[in-house]
Structures are given as structure tokens and as C-alpha cells.
Specification:
With about 180 residues, this protein is of the alpha+beta class. About 30% of the residues lie in helices and about 25% in strands.
Amino acid sequence: MSTRSTLTIKTDTTTINFYRHMDGYVAEAGNTIAQLLNKVLNAKNAWQHPGVKLAEEIMKQQYEATEYRTASPIYELTNNPILHGDIEYHYDINFNHYTNENWVHVYQWIDTKKQSNVDHNYWNLLFTGNFEQYKNFVAKELAEHQKRIKAYEEKLKFTGYHGIYPNKRKRPITVTGRRTQKV
């Protein structure tokens, strides 16, 4: 199942909304946004329209082509991020040219129906802060994500799944082409 997310970039005069269908969690989409923010803010003319420059960089992002699909955009423009259903994360980036205060807000959709019979869904604020604080937040989320992946791989290793562990030997193949039985 895909982890969908939306992104809103706000400047003093403009609001640009994006939708992302896959990998919208903080360790992936949030990390991409942090890297692009860093690129835009460290550019030669960073003070000129950073929100628009970030939007341009977002539009350049593409999923790589594989043997099954062609390269395709990761983000698509949308009029209203609320119109997309089943969104799990929303990233809100605010550039204020006049006060030079720039903020990032990250929200996670909480679906209480999955946890109980009560139908009370809401957006939970995961993070609010400036760009430097956001980079630290993303770094922590990325480290947690790596821990979860490692724990999952250990679980697979413990249960005997060898698909991702090439150093585990398979039983030899006999002349008939079948794997030998365990003795």
C-alpha cells in the first residue's frame, strides 16, 4: 500500500500544492524535501523567490525508469491537497520574505477508526520549526527508519527467510533438476 502525502509551499504571494502517491513518510519524502530545501537555500541567489525555486526542484523529481515502467514524476501539482483521499502526511513550508522567517510544519493523519469504533479523524502535528530544526528532525526520523529496517531484516533472518541473504546456501540441485531433500 502506498504512503500518500501532500506538500504546500507558501510565500508571501503564492501557494503551490503538490501530491505524492508513494513513499510520503518523513524518512523518504521529508528527506527529499530537506535535501531540496538545502539546495535551494544554499544556491547563489537564494534570497530571490526560494519558494518558487523549491517548487521547480520538486517538479524535477522523478521515479527512475525500470523494465516495467518509464520514468515518471514523483510529485504532481494539485489545486487542493485536501481533495486527495487516504493521505497520511502533509508537509507545509512557509517562506516569509518580509520577516525572513521560514517555517516547516509536518502533520500526520490519525485515523481513529483503525484503532477503535470511534470516527474521530484528525491531523496530528509531528513537527514545527525552522529549516535547521527540520533537517535535525528528518535526520532522527531517517535513523529510526534505518533501525526499523534492520530489525525487520533480523526478524527475517531469524525466521529462516533467505531471499535477501545471499550468503545462505541453497540445497544442491540433483541431476533431475530438483533440490535435494533435507536429511
